[in-house]
Write a structure and sequence with these properties.
Elements (H helix, E strand, L loop, with lengths): L2 H25 L9 E7 L2 E5 L14 E4 L2 E8 L6 E3 L6 E4 L3 E5 L7 E3 L5 E2 L5 E2 L5 E6 L14 E2 L7 E2 L6 E7 L13 E2 L22 E2 L3 E3 L5 E3 L5 E5 L7 E5 L12 E3 L2 H16 L4 E5 L5 E5 L8 E3 L7 E2 L20 E2 L8 E8 L5 E14 L2 E9 L14 E8 L5 E5 L2 E4 L9 E6 L17 E7 L5 E8 L4 E6 L4 E7 L1 E3 L7 E2 L5 E2 L8 E3 L8 E4 L1 E3 L5 H33 L4
Parallel strand pairs: 14-33, 20-21
Antiparallel strand pairs: 1-4, 2-3, 5-43, 6-42, 7-8, 7-11, 7-38, 9-10, 11-12, 11-37, 13-35, 14-34, 15-25, 15-26, 16-23, 17-18, 19-20, 19-24, 22-23, 27-28, 28-29, 29-30, 30-31, 32-33, 35-36, 36-37, 38-41, 39-40
Helix pairs in contact: 1-3
Length: 593
Protein backbone atom coordinates (compact mmCIF):
# COMPACT_ATOMS: atom_id res chain seq x y z
CA UNK A 1 0.00 0.00 0.00
CA UNK A 2 1.35 3.43 -0.89
CA UNK A 3 2.49 5.59 2.04
CA UNK A 4 1.05 8.69 0.38
CA UNK A 5 -2.43 7.26 0.81
CA UNK A 6 -2.07 7.18 4.57
CA UNK A 7 -0.35 10.52 4.61
CA UNK A 8 -3.38 11.97 2.84
CA UNK A 9 -5.69 10.32 5.35
CA UNK A 10 -3.76 11.85 8.28
CA UNK A 11 -3.94 15.21 6.53
CA UNK A 12 -7.71 14.93 6.24
CA UNK A 13 -8.00 14.01 9.91
CA UNK A 14 -5.78 16.87 11.07
CA UNK A 15 -7.57 19.47 8.94
CA UNK A 16 -10.91 18.17 10.12
CA UNK A 17 -9.83 18.92 13.70
CA UNK A 18 -8.61 22.35 12.60
CA UNK A 19 -12.01 22.96 11.00
CA UNK A 20 -13.73 21.91 14.25
CA UNK A 21 -11.63 24.32 16.31
CA UNK A 22 -12.10 27.22 13.91
CA UNK A 23 -15.80 26.52 13.68
CA UNK A 24 -16.02 26.67 17.47
CA UNK A 25 -14.20 30.01 17.43
CA UNK A 26 -16.66 31.45 14.93
CA UNK A 27 -19.63 30.03 16.87
CA UNK A 28 -18.44 31.90 19.99
CA UNK A 29 -17.75 35.20 18.26
CA UNK A 30 -20.30 36.90 20.57
CA UNK A 31 -19.73 34.84 23.73
CA UNK A 32 -18.83 37.01 26.72
CA UNK A 33 -15.28 36.42 27.91
CA UNK A 34 -14.59 33.70 25.31
CA UNK A 35 -10.96 33.05 24.31
CA UNK A 36 -10.28 31.62 20.88
CA UNK A 37 -8.15 28.54 20.20
CA UNK A 38 -5.54 27.81 17.55
CA UNK A 39 -4.49 24.43 16.10
CA UNK A 40 -0.80 23.66 15.67
CA UNK A 41 0.26 20.81 13.34
CA UNK A 42 3.32 18.54 13.43
CA UNK A 43 4.58 15.80 11.12
CA UNK A 44 4.48 12.11 12.00
CA UNK A 45 7.45 9.75 12.15
CA UNK A 46 9.59 9.54 9.03
CA UNK A 47 10.70 6.31 7.42
CA UNK A 48 14.47 6.51 6.97
CA UNK A 49 15.91 4.87 3.86
CA UNK A 50 19.47 5.93 4.48
CA UNK A 51 21.11 7.42 7.49
CA UNK A 52 23.40 10.40 7.30
CA UNK A 53 27.16 9.83 6.91
CA UNK A 54 30.00 12.08 7.87
CA UNK A 55 32.63 13.30 5.39
CA UNK A 56 35.53 10.83 5.03
CA UNK A 57 38.72 11.83 3.35
CA UNK A 58 37.98 13.19 -0.07
CA UNK A 59 34.40 11.87 0.09
CA UNK A 60 31.83 14.32 1.32
CA UNK A 61 29.12 13.56 3.83
CA UNK A 62 25.62 12.44 2.90
CA UNK A 63 22.30 13.58 4.33
CA UNK A 64 19.72 11.11 5.54
CA UNK A 65 16.98 9.90 3.22
CA UNK A 66 13.53 9.96 4.90
CA UNK A 67 9.95 9.67 3.76
CA UNK A 68 7.29 11.31 5.92
CA UNK A 69 4.29 9.31 7.05
CA UNK A 70 1.80 12.16 7.38
CA UNK A 71 0.58 14.85 9.82
CA UNK A 72 -0.79 15.08 13.34
CA UNK A 73 -2.32 17.78 15.56
CA UNK A 74 0.50 18.77 17.86
CA UNK A 75 -1.44 21.17 20.15
CA UNK A 76 -4.57 23.27 20.48
CA UNK A 77 -3.59 26.51 22.17
CA UNK A 78 -6.09 28.83 23.87
CA UNK A 79 -5.04 32.45 23.43
CA UNK A 80 -5.94 34.78 26.34
CA UNK A 81 -5.59 37.97 24.37
CA UNK A 82 -7.61 40.88 25.81
CA UNK A 83 -11.12 41.14 24.38
CA UNK A 84 -12.90 44.39 23.65
CA UNK A 85 -14.72 46.07 26.57
CA UNK A 86 -18.40 46.81 26.01
CA UNK A 87 -20.25 49.08 28.45
CA UNK A 88 -23.62 48.00 29.82
CA UNK A 89 -26.43 49.47 31.91
CA UNK A 90 -26.00 47.03 34.82
CA UNK A 91 -23.61 48.06 37.59
CA UNK A 92 -22.93 44.45 38.63
CA UNK A 93 -21.48 43.64 35.19
CA UNK A 94 -17.70 43.44 35.57
CA UNK A 95 -14.92 43.34 32.99
CA UNK A 96 -11.25 42.62 33.63
CA UNK A 97 -8.86 44.99 31.91
CA UNK A 98 -5.61 43.04 31.94
CA UNK A 99 -4.62 39.60 33.21
CA UNK A 100 -6.48 37.53 35.76
CA UNK A 101 -9.69 35.61 36.38
CA UNK A 102 -12.71 35.90 38.61
CA UNK A 103 -12.82 33.14 41.24
CA UNK A 104 -16.10 31.19 41.50
CA UNK A 105 -17.35 28.31 43.60
CA UNK A 106 -20.43 26.13 43.56
CA UNK A 107 -19.71 24.16 46.73
CA UNK A 108 -18.94 26.77 49.43
CA UNK A 109 -15.27 27.00 48.55
CA UNK A 110 -14.41 23.30 48.44
CA UNK A 111 -13.35 23.75 44.80
CA UNK A 112 -12.92 26.75 42.55
CA UNK A 113 -13.58 27.65 38.96
CA UNK A 114 -12.17 30.62 37.06
CA UNK A 115 -13.78 32.87 34.50
CA UNK A 116 -13.39 36.06 32.49
CA UNK A 117 -17.17 36.39 32.17
CA UNK A 118 -18.31 39.08 34.61
CA UNK A 119 -22.06 38.78 34.06
CA UNK A 120 -22.94 38.79 37.78
CA UNK A 121 -26.16 39.37 39.74
CA UNK A 122 -27.41 39.10 43.32
CA UNK A 123 -29.75 36.17 43.91
CA UNK A 124 -32.68 36.01 46.34
CA UNK A 125 -30.36 35.36 49.29
CA UNK A 126 -27.95 38.12 48.37
CA UNK A 127 -25.30 35.81 46.89
CA UNK A 128 -23.19 37.43 44.17
CA UNK A 129 -23.43 34.80 41.40
CA UNK A 130 -22.66 34.29 37.71
CA UNK A 131 -25.04 32.96 35.06
CA UNK A 132 -24.23 29.37 36.10
CA UNK A 133 -25.16 30.02 39.73
CA UNK A 134 -21.54 29.84 40.90
CA UNK A 135 -20.91 32.26 43.78
CA UNK A 136 -18.24 34.91 43.28
CA UNK A 137 -15.44 34.59 45.80
CA UNK A 138 -13.76 37.40 47.71
CA UNK A 139 -13.57 39.05 51.12
CA UNK A 140 -16.49 40.36 53.16
CA UNK A 141 -16.48 43.32 55.56
CA UNK A 142 -15.92 42.41 59.20
CA UNK A 143 -18.92 43.81 61.08
CA UNK A 144 -16.87 44.20 64.25
CA UNK A 145 -13.96 46.17 62.79
CA UNK A 146 -15.67 47.60 59.73
CA UNK A 147 -12.65 46.55 57.63
CA UNK A 148 -12.05 44.15 54.72
CA UNK A 149 -9.05 41.88 55.26
CA UNK A 150 -7.71 40.90 51.83
CA UNK A 151 -5.11 38.64 53.46
CA UNK A 152 -7.79 36.34 54.89
CA UNK A 153 -9.05 33.23 53.04
CA UNK A 154 -11.61 33.98 50.33
CA UNK A 155 -15.27 33.18 50.85
CA UNK A 156 -18.67 33.53 49.21
CA UNK A 157 -19.64 37.16 48.64
CA UNK A 158 -23.08 37.68 50.10
CA UNK A 159 -24.86 40.99 50.78
CA UNK A 160 -27.99 40.19 52.81
CA UNK A 161 -31.19 41.76 51.41
CA UNK A 162 -32.48 44.65 53.51
CA UNK A 163 -29.06 45.40 54.95
CA UNK A 164 -29.08 48.29 57.41
CA UNK A 165 -26.34 50.21 59.13
CA UNK A 166 -26.80 51.20 62.79
CA UNK A 167 -26.46 54.75 63.98
CA UNK A 168 -22.99 55.91 64.95
CA UNK A 169 -22.80 58.38 67.82
CA UNK A 170 -20.58 61.39 67.23
CA UNK A 171 -17.22 61.00 68.93
CA UNK A 172 -15.22 63.84 67.35
CA UNK A 173 -16.05 67.31 66.08
CA UNK A 174 -13.34 69.01 64.02
CA UNK A 175 -13.30 72.74 63.33
CA UNK A 176 -11.01 74.80 61.12
CA UNK A 177 -11.63 78.52 61.37
CA UNK A 178 -9.89 81.88 61.61
CA UNK A 179 -10.77 84.30 64.39
CA UNK A 180 -9.99 87.88 63.42
CA UNK A 181 -7.03 89.03 65.50
CA UNK A 182 -8.04 92.62 64.78
CA UNK A 183 -11.42 92.18 66.45
CA UNK A 184 -12.13 94.95 68.96
CA UNK A 185 -12.79 93.67 72.47
CA UNK A 186 -16.39 94.52 73.35
CA UNK A 187 -17.41 96.47 76.43
CA UNK A 188 -19.06 94.59 79.23
CA UNK A 189 -21.96 95.02 81.65
CA UNK A 190 -22.53 93.53 85.07
CA UNK A 191 -25.16 90.84 84.92
CA UNK A 192 -26.48 89.38 88.14
CA UNK A 193 -27.09 85.68 88.56
CA UNK A 194 -30.43 84.65 90.01
CA UNK A 195 -28.88 81.87 92.07
CA UNK A 196 -25.49 81.76 93.70
CA UNK A 197 -25.42 77.97 93.23
CA UNK A 198 -25.79 78.37 89.48
CA UNK A 199 -29.26 76.84 89.15
CA UNK A 200 -32.08 78.55 87.29
CA UNK A 201 -34.77 80.25 89.36
CA UNK A 202 -38.02 81.85 88.34
CA UNK A 203 -39.60 84.55 90.49
CA UNK A 204 -42.71 82.65 91.46
CA UNK A 205 -43.35 84.83 94.53
CA UNK A 206 -43.84 87.97 92.46
CA UNK A 207 -46.67 87.09 90.08
CA UNK A 208 -47.91 89.58 87.53
CA UNK A 209 -51.64 90.13 87.93
CA UNK A 210 -54.13 92.71 86.77
CA UNK A 211 -53.88 94.37 90.15
CA UNK A 212 -50.23 93.70 90.80
CA UNK A 213 -46.97 95.24 89.70
CA UNK A 214 -45.68 94.58 86.17
CA UNK A 215 -42.10 93.67 85.33
CA UNK A 216 -40.28 96.08 83.04
CA UNK A 217 -37.81 94.72 80.52
CA UNK A 218 -35.65 97.03 78.44
CA UNK A 219 -32.87 95.64 76.25
CA UNK A 220 -31.97 98.74 74.25
CA UNK A 221 -28.97 99.41 76.43
CA UNK A 222 -26.40 97.52 78.47
CA UNK A 223 -23.92 98.93 80.95
CA UNK A 224 -20.18 98.58 81.33
CA UNK A 225 -18.35 98.14 84.64
CA UNK A 226 -18.39 101.92 85.22
CA UNK A 227 -22.14 102.15 84.77
CA UNK A 228 -21.88 103.73 81.34
CA UNK A 229 -24.44 102.63 78.78
CA UNK A 230 -23.57 100.93 75.49
CA UNK A 231 -25.92 100.46 72.55
CA UNK A 232 -26.86 97.10 71.10
CA UNK A 233 -24.82 95.96 68.12
CA UNK A 234 -25.85 93.59 65.36
CA UNK A 235 -25.83 90.01 66.58
CA UNK A 236 -26.39 90.93 70.26
CA UNK A 237 -29.05 88.68 71.69
CA UNK A 238 -30.95 87.96 74.88
CA UNK A 239 -33.19 85.12 75.94
CA UNK A 240 -36.56 85.41 77.72
CA UNK A 241 -38.79 82.78 79.30
CA UNK A 242 -42.47 83.48 79.92
CA UNK A 243 -43.23 80.12 81.60
CA UNK A 244 -40.78 79.79 84.44
CA UNK A 245 -37.81 78.59 82.44
CA UNK A 246 -39.48 75.74 80.56
CA UNK A 247 -39.17 77.47 77.20
CA UNK A 248 -36.69 80.16 76.17
CA UNK A 249 -36.98 82.57 73.26
CA UNK A 250 -33.92 84.23 71.79
CA UNK A 251 -34.19 87.72 70.27
CA UNK A 252 -31.33 88.92 68.07
CA UNK A 253 -30.77 92.53 67.03
CA UNK A 254 -30.48 92.84 63.24
CA UNK A 255 -28.86 95.98 61.86
CA UNK A 256 -31.04 97.30 58.97
CA UNK A 257 -27.89 98.45 57.16
CA UNK A 258 -26.40 94.96 57.17
CA UNK A 259 -26.71 92.51 54.26
CA UNK A 260 -26.44 89.44 56.50
CA UNK A 261 -29.10 87.80 58.66
CA UNK A 262 -28.33 86.11 62.01
CA UNK A 263 -28.62 82.32 61.77
CA UNK A 264 -30.51 81.72 65.04
CA UNK A 265 -33.26 83.38 67.07
CA UNK A 266 -36.00 85.87 66.25
CA UNK A 267 -34.55 89.00 64.71
CA UNK A 268 -35.73 92.53 65.45
CA UNK A 269 -34.77 95.96 64.17
CA UNK A 270 -37.33 98.29 65.73
CA UNK A 271 -39.05 98.48 69.12
CA UNK A 272 -42.29 97.39 67.47
CA UNK A 273 -40.57 94.30 66.02
CA UNK A 274 -39.41 93.24 69.47
CA UNK A 275 -42.71 94.12 71.20
CA UNK A 276 -44.78 92.08 68.77
CA UNK A 277 -42.41 89.08 68.89
CA UNK A 278 -42.39 89.02 72.70
CA UNK A 279 -46.16 89.36 72.86
CA UNK A 280 -46.70 86.49 70.41
CA UNK A 281 -44.30 84.22 72.31
CA UNK A 282 -45.80 85.09 75.72
CA UNK A 283 -49.32 84.36 74.54
CA UNK A 284 -48.26 81.07 72.94
CA UNK A 285 -46.29 79.82 75.96
CA UNK A 286 -48.98 80.71 78.53
CA UNK A 287 -51.96 79.81 76.37
CA UNK A 288 -53.66 83.15 76.81
CA UNK A 289 -54.53 85.91 74.37
CA UNK A 290 -55.09 88.37 77.24
CA UNK A 291 -51.36 88.97 77.71
CA UNK A 292 -50.02 92.22 76.29
CA UNK A 293 -46.51 93.54 75.81
CA UNK A 294 -46.37 97.31 75.50
CA UNK A 295 -43.66 99.97 75.34
CA UNK A 296 -44.32 102.48 78.10
CA UNK A 297 -43.44 106.14 78.24
CA UNK A 298 -39.98 105.36 79.63
CA UNK A 299 -39.10 103.15 76.65
CA UNK A 300 -39.46 99.99 78.72
CA UNK A 301 -41.19 96.81 77.64
CA UNK A 302 -44.07 96.16 80.04
CA UNK A 303 -45.68 92.72 80.26
CA UNK A 304 -49.30 92.93 81.42
CA UNK A 305 -51.91 90.31 82.21
CA UNK A 306 -55.48 91.45 81.71
CA UNK A 307 -57.12 88.39 83.28
CA UNK A 308 -55.31 88.17 86.57
CA UNK A 309 -53.55 84.88 85.81
CA UNK A 310 -50.02 84.50 87.11
CA UNK A 311 -47.08 84.92 84.75
CA UNK A 312 -43.50 83.99 85.64
CA UNK A 313 -40.75 85.77 83.74
CA UNK A 314 -37.14 84.64 83.50
CA UNK A 315 -34.61 86.50 81.39
CA UNK A 316 -31.42 84.70 80.32
CA UNK A 317 -28.55 86.94 79.21
CA UNK A 318 -25.77 86.32 78.52
CA UNK A 319 -25.78 82.58 77.80
CA UNK A 320 -22.36 81.81 79.20
CA UNK A 321 -23.18 83.17 82.63
CA UNK A 322 -26.21 80.98 83.17
CA UNK A 323 -29.85 81.98 83.15
CA UNK A 324 -29.69 85.58 84.33
CA UNK A 325 -31.73 88.73 84.80
CA UNK A 326 -30.35 92.24 84.41
CA UNK A 327 -30.91 93.97 87.70
CA UNK A 328 -30.46 97.35 86.00
CA UNK A 329 -30.95 97.89 82.32
CA UNK A 330 -31.75 101.64 82.13
CA UNK A 331 -30.80 104.48 84.42
CA UNK A 332 -34.41 104.92 85.61
CA UNK A 333 -35.01 101.18 86.09
CA UNK A 334 -36.09 100.18 89.60
CA UNK A 335 -34.26 97.11 90.95
CA UNK A 336 -36.44 94.10 91.74
CA UNK A 337 -36.88 93.45 95.41
CA UNK A 338 -36.88 90.00 96.96
CA UNK A 339 -36.32 88.28 93.65
CA UNK A 340 -33.81 85.78 95.01
CA UNK A 341 -34.94 83.90 98.10
CA UNK A 342 -32.59 81.81 100.27
CA UNK A 343 -29.44 82.52 98.23
CA UNK A 344 -27.07 85.42 97.91
CA UNK A 345 -26.74 87.17 94.60
CA UNK A 346 -23.42 87.17 92.84
CA UNK A 347 -22.00 88.93 89.80
CA UNK A 348 -21.67 86.75 86.73
CA UNK A 349 -18.93 86.80 84.12
CA UNK A 350 -18.67 89.88 81.96
CA UNK A 351 -20.89 90.17 78.90
CA UNK A 352 -19.14 89.96 75.54
CA UNK A 353 -20.96 90.01 72.23
CA UNK A 354 -20.32 87.05 69.92
CA UNK A 355 -17.95 87.80 67.05
CA UNK A 356 -17.96 84.39 65.33
CA UNK A 357 -20.04 81.24 65.58
CA UNK A 358 -20.27 77.85 63.87
CA UNK A 359 -22.86 75.11 64.18
CA UNK A 360 -22.93 71.45 63.24
CA UNK A 361 -25.37 68.59 63.71
CA UNK A 362 -24.14 65.81 65.99
CA UNK A 363 -25.76 62.42 66.53
CA UNK A 364 -26.54 60.36 69.61
CA UNK A 365 -26.50 56.56 69.87
CA UNK A 366 -30.05 56.37 68.47
CA UNK A 367 -29.12 58.42 65.43
CA UNK A 368 -31.10 61.47 66.53
CA UNK A 369 -29.70 64.79 65.39
CA UNK A 370 -28.79 67.66 67.70
CA UNK A 371 -27.22 71.02 66.91
CA UNK A 372 -23.93 71.83 68.61
CA UNK A 373 -23.12 75.54 68.44
CA UNK A 374 -19.67 77.02 69.10
CA UNK A 375 -19.41 80.77 69.72
CA UNK A 376 -16.16 82.71 70.04
CA UNK A 377 -15.75 86.09 71.72
CA UNK A 378 -12.48 87.95 72.11
CA UNK A 379 -11.73 88.88 75.72
CA UNK A 380 -8.05 89.85 75.88
CA UNK A 381 -5.03 90.76 73.78
CA UNK A 382 -1.40 90.92 74.93
CA UNK A 383 2.11 90.60 73.46
CA UNK A 384 2.00 86.91 74.34
CA UNK A 385 -1.11 86.33 72.26
CA UNK A 386 -4.89 86.57 72.37
CA UNK A 387 -7.53 84.82 74.41
CA UNK A 388 -11.07 84.16 73.28
CA UNK A 389 -14.06 82.88 75.17
CA UNK A 390 -15.54 79.70 73.67
CA UNK A 391 -19.19 78.89 74.39
CA UNK A 392 -20.60 75.49 73.46
CA UNK A 393 -24.36 75.03 73.52
CA UNK A 394 -26.99 72.47 72.56
CA UNK A 395 -30.78 72.89 72.46
CA UNK A 396 -32.89 71.74 75.40
CA UNK A 397 -33.39 69.08 76.68
CA UNK A 398 -29.89 67.98 75.64
CA UNK A 399 -27.07 68.50 78.14
CA UNK A 400 -23.33 69.10 77.91
CA UNK A 401 -22.80 70.33 81.47
CA UNK A 402 -23.28 68.81 84.91
CA UNK A 403 -24.54 72.00 86.59
CA UNK A 404 -27.36 74.35 85.69
CA UNK A 405 -27.81 75.54 83.05
CA UNK A 406 -26.89 72.19 81.53
CA UNK A 407 -27.28 72.99 77.87
CA UNK A 408 -24.19 75.15 77.44
CA UNK A 409 -20.60 75.22 78.59
CA UNK A 410 -18.09 78.07 78.71
CA UNK A 411 -14.46 77.46 77.78
CA UNK A 412 -11.56 79.33 76.27
CA UNK A 413 -9.13 79.23 73.38
CA UNK A 414 -5.83 81.08 73.16
CA UNK A 415 -3.46 81.86 70.31
CA UNK A 416 0.26 82.56 70.06
CA UNK A 417 1.56 85.89 68.66
CA UNK A 418 2.04 84.33 65.20
CA UNK A 419 -1.64 83.37 65.05
CA UNK A 420 -1.15 79.66 65.66
CA UNK A 421 -3.14 77.75 68.23
CA UNK A 422 -1.76 77.80 71.77
CA UNK A 423 -4.36 75.87 73.76
CA UNK A 424 -8.06 75.38 74.24
CA UNK A 425 -10.38 74.06 76.93
CA UNK A 426 -12.41 71.96 77.21
CA UNK A 427 -10.92 69.35 74.90
CA UNK A 428 -14.08 67.26 75.11
CA UNK A 429 -17.63 67.49 76.35
CA UNK A 430 -19.97 64.95 77.91
CA UNK A 431 -23.17 64.95 75.88
CA UNK A 432 -26.54 63.54 76.95
CA UNK A 433 -29.49 63.78 74.58
CA UNK A 434 -32.08 62.87 77.27
CA UNK A 435 -34.20 61.03 74.71
CA UNK A 436 -33.43 57.44 75.65
CA UNK A 437 -30.03 57.38 73.95
CA UNK A 438 -26.81 56.56 75.78
CA UNK A 439 -25.95 59.19 78.37
CA UNK A 440 -22.63 60.93 78.90
CA UNK A 441 -21.56 60.47 75.31
CA UNK A 442 -18.02 61.81 74.99
CA UNK A 443 -17.48 64.20 72.08
CA UNK A 444 -13.85 65.14 71.51
CA UNK A 445 -13.07 68.58 70.13
CA UNK A 446 -10.41 68.74 67.43
CA UNK A 447 -9.51 72.39 67.02
CA UNK A 448 -5.97 71.80 65.80
CA UNK A 449 -2.46 71.18 67.12
CA UNK A 450 -0.72 73.59 69.45
CA UNK A 451 1.93 75.60 67.60
CA UNK A 452 0.60 74.64 64.17
CA UNK A 453 -1.87 76.10 61.72
CA UNK A 454 -3.87 72.93 61.03
CA UNK A 455 -7.03 73.98 62.84
CA UNK A 456 -8.02 77.20 64.56
CA UNK A 457 -5.94 80.28 63.73
CA UNK A 458 -6.08 83.96 64.60
CA UNK A 459 -4.86 86.18 61.76
CA UNK A 460 -5.80 89.75 60.96
CA UNK A 461 -8.40 88.57 58.46
CA UNK A 462 -12.19 88.33 58.72
CA UNK A 463 -13.44 85.57 60.98
CA UNK A 464 -14.46 82.64 58.79
CA UNK A 465 -15.07 78.91 59.12
CA UNK A 466 -13.20 76.93 56.47
CA UNK A 467 -14.26 73.49 57.61
CA UNK A 468 -16.37 71.79 60.25
CA UNK A 469 -17.07 68.07 60.42
CA UNK A 470 -18.11 65.26 62.73
CA UNK A 471 -18.03 61.47 62.51
CA UNK A 472 -21.55 60.53 63.58
CA UNK A 473 -24.51 59.51 61.44
CA UNK A 474 -28.03 58.10 61.82
CA UNK A 475 -29.07 54.58 60.91
CA UNK A 476 -29.80 53.85 57.26
CA UNK A 477 -30.95 51.22 54.78
CA UNK A 478 -28.93 49.98 51.82
CA UNK A 479 -30.22 51.61 48.65
CA UNK A 480 -27.46 51.00 46.11
CA UNK A 481 -24.14 49.31 45.35
CA UNK A 482 -21.31 50.44 43.12
CA UNK A 483 -18.07 48.61 42.34
CA UNK A 484 -14.73 50.35 41.93
CA UNK A 485 -11.67 49.33 39.90
CA UNK A 486 -10.27 47.24 42.76
CA UNK A 487 -13.45 45.14 42.81
CA UNK A 488 -14.68 46.67 46.06
CA UNK A 489 -18.45 46.63 46.47
CA UNK A 490 -19.37 49.96 48.06
CA UNK A 491 -22.82 50.24 49.60
CA UNK A 492 -24.76 53.51 49.67
CA UNK A 493 -27.25 53.96 52.50
CA UNK A 494 -30.26 56.21 52.99
CA UNK A 495 -28.40 58.13 55.70
CA UNK A 496 -25.92 59.39 53.12
CA UNK A 497 -23.13 57.08 54.28
CA UNK A 498 -21.12 54.84 51.97
CA UNK A 499 -18.66 52.13 52.91
CA UNK A 500 -17.12 48.94 51.53
CA UNK A 501 -19.18 45.78 51.94
CA UNK A 502 -16.99 43.24 50.14
CA UNK A 503 -14.19 42.90 47.61
CA UNK A 504 -14.02 40.59 44.59
CA UNK A 505 -10.95 38.33 44.52
CA UNK A 506 -8.91 37.69 41.37
CA UNK A 507 -6.54 34.89 40.43
CA UNK A 508 -3.74 34.54 37.94
CA UNK A 509 -1.62 31.55 36.95
CA UNK A 510 1.95 30.86 35.95
CA UNK A 511 0.57 29.23 32.77
CA UNK A 512 -2.93 30.40 31.90
CA UNK A 513 -2.87 28.34 28.69
CA UNK A 514 -2.69 25.24 30.88
CA UNK A 515 -6.23 25.82 32.19
CA UNK A 516 -8.90 23.40 31.08
CA UNK A 517 -12.24 24.67 29.80
CA UNK A 518 -15.15 23.29 31.82
CA UNK A 519 -18.05 24.72 29.82
CA UNK A 520 -20.22 27.65 30.78
CA UNK A 521 -17.35 30.08 30.19
CA UNK A 522 -15.37 28.74 33.16
CA UNK A 523 -11.98 27.07 33.50
CA UNK A 524 -10.51 24.68 36.02
CA UNK A 525 -6.98 24.28 37.26
CA UNK A 526 -4.71 21.56 35.82
CA UNK A 527 -1.34 20.20 36.75
CA UNK A 528 0.28 22.33 34.04
CA UNK A 529 -1.48 25.61 34.85
CA UNK A 530 0.09 25.91 38.26
CA UNK A 531 -1.70 26.89 41.45
CA UNK A 532 -3.84 30.03 41.45
CA UNK A 533 -2.26 33.16 42.86
CA UNK A 534 -5.20 34.90 44.52
CA UNK A 535 -5.19 38.56 45.43
CA UNK A 536 -6.76 41.95 44.87
CA UNK A 537 -7.38 43.49 41.48
CA UNK A 538 -4.74 45.89 40.16
CA UNK A 539 -2.01 44.16 42.20
CA UNK A 540 0.53 41.42 41.42
CA UNK A 541 0.13 41.54 37.61
CA UNK A 542 -3.63 41.25 37.98
CA UNK A 543 -5.68 43.65 35.90
CA UNK A 544 -8.18 46.17 37.21
CA UNK A 545 -11.94 45.80 37.15
CA UNK A 546 -14.33 47.97 35.18
CA UNK A 547 -17.93 47.98 36.38
CA UNK A 548 -20.98 48.32 34.14
CA UNK A 549 -18.98 46.60 31.40
CA UNK A 550 -18.33 43.14 29.96
CA UNK A 551 -15.35 41.72 28.10
CA UNK A 552 -16.39 40.49 24.67
CA UNK A 553 -15.06 37.45 22.82
CA UNK A 554 -11.54 37.91 21.50
CA UNK A 555 -12.36 36.02 18.27
CA UNK A 556 -11.17 38.00 15.25
CA UNK A 557 -13.78 37.11 12.67
CA UNK A 558 -11.68 38.20 9.69
CA UNK A 559 -8.81 36.00 10.86
CA UNK A 560 -11.13 33.07 11.49
CA UNK A 561 -12.80 33.30 8.08
CA UNK A 562 -9.40 33.49 6.40
CA UNK A 563 -8.30 30.49 8.41
CA UNK A 564 -11.38 28.63 7.18
CA UNK A 565 -10.18 29.08 3.61
CA UNK A 566 -6.71 27.85 4.55
CA UNK A 567 -8.11 24.78 6.30
CA UNK A 568 -10.49 24.06 3.45
CA UNK A 569 -7.72 24.20 0.88
CA UNK A 570 -5.56 21.98 3.03
CA UNK A 571 -8.35 19.47 3.30
CA UNK A 572 -8.92 19.57 -0.47
CA UNK A 573 -5.22 19.10 -1.14
CA UNK A 574 -5.03 16.08 1.14
CA UNK A 575 -8.10 14.57 -0.49
CA UNK A 576 -6.36 15.06 -3.83
CA UNK A 577 -3.39 13.13 -2.46
CA UNK A 578 -5.72 10.23 -1.71
CA UNK A 579 -7.41 10.26 -5.12
CA UNK A 580 -4.08 10.54 -6.92
CA UNK A 581 -2.65 7.65 -4.90
CA UNK A 582 -5.78 5.69 -5.71
CA UNK A 583 -5.32 6.36 -9.42
CA UNK A 584 -1.73 5.19 -9.18
CA UNK A 585 -2.87 1.98 -7.49
CA UNK A 586 -5.51 1.55 -10.17
CA UNK A 587 -2.84 1.88 -12.85
CA UNK A 588 -0.78 -0.73 -11.04
CA UNK A 589 -3.71 -3.13 -11.00
CA UNK A 590 -4.27 -2.60 -14.70
CA UNK A 591 -0.75 -3.85 -15.55
CA UNK A 592 -2.10 -7.42 -15.37
CA UNK A 593 -4.78 -6.79 -17.95
Amino acid sequence: MMRSLWAGVSGLQAHQIAMDVEGNNIANVNTTGFKYSRVNFADLLNQTSKVATAPQGSLGGKNPMQVGLGIQVNSITKLFKQGSIQTTDKNTDLAIQGDGFFVLSGDDGKSYKYSRNGDFVFDAKGNFVDSNGYVVQGWVRDSATGQIDATAPIQNIQIPPGLTTPANATSTVSLKANLNSGQVIDNKSLVYSLDSTGSNQSDEARAITSSGKSYYLDFKTLFDSKGESIALQEGNAFRVSFDGGTTFHEYVYDDPNSTTTPANGTTFTTNEDLRRAMQDDARADLGSTDIDVIVNADGQYEIQNRTGAEIRVLVQSPQEAGNTLNQKLLDMFTPLEGAIPDNDTKISQAFYSATHASSIDVFDSLGSKHTLRLEFRKISQSPSGAEWMMVLSVPNPSEINTIDPKNYLVGSISFQPDGSLASFSPTHVSFSANNGASTKQTINLDLGTAGLFDGMTSFDNPSTTSGISQDGYPGGDLNGIRIDETGTLIGSFTNGRSFALAQVAMANFANSEGLESDGGNVFVQTSNSGDPIIGQAATGKRGFIQSSALEMSNVDLSRSLTQLIVVQRGFQANSKTITTSDQMLQTLLQLKQ
